[in-house]
Design a protein that fits this description.
Layout lengths: L4 H7 L2 E8 L1 H13 L13 E6 L15 E12 L10 E8 L1 H14 L11 E5 L16 E12 L3 H5 L1
Antiparallel strand pairs: 1-2, 1-6, 3-4, 3-6, 4-5
Amino acid sequence: MTKTYKQLMEEMKGTYAGVRLDKKSNNLIETYMKEHDVPNRVPTDKLHITLLYSRKYLPNYKPSQTSYPMSAKTVGFHIWKTQSLEHKDSKNCLVLEINAPKLIKRHKELMDEHEATFDYPEYKTHITLSYDIGDFDISDLPKMHNLLTIEKEYKEDLDLNWADKHG
C-alpha cells in the first residue's frame, strides 16, 4: 500500500510535550539566576519541563487541561552535557532537578497510551536554566528550597535540530 503525503510527512516529525510554570515560579527562578550570575540564562518565558520527546509523531495526543496546576519541589543543580547532531563539542548545561511524581506518572501514561519513543534511558524531571554555562562552578550555588507551580501542558512538533540552533 502506498503511503499518502500526509503519512510520509508525519513520519518525518515527532511530538514534543512540555509543561510551563506559573509567573510566580518563573520570577523566583529568574531572580535566583540573576543574583547568582548564572551565565547564558534561559529567558524566563522559555523555562519549561520536558514531558515527552518522541521521534514518533503522536497525532492523537492532546495536552491535558485537567491535570494542572500541580506543585513540584526543587531538588538540586546538575551539569549535563548538550547533545547535538551537528556539533562535536558538547556544552555544559545547568539543570534544576525537581521532584514531581505526578509528571513522572503523566510521562508514563503518555508513553504507554501512544506507544511513544524516548531517546533517554530514564525520564528525569528538570528545568534547564542555561544551555551553556562554560566552566561556571555550581558547587557555590546555594540550594533552592522552593515549591514551584506547574501551570499548563503544551505540545509542538519535535525539532530534531533544536540543540544545534540553541546550543
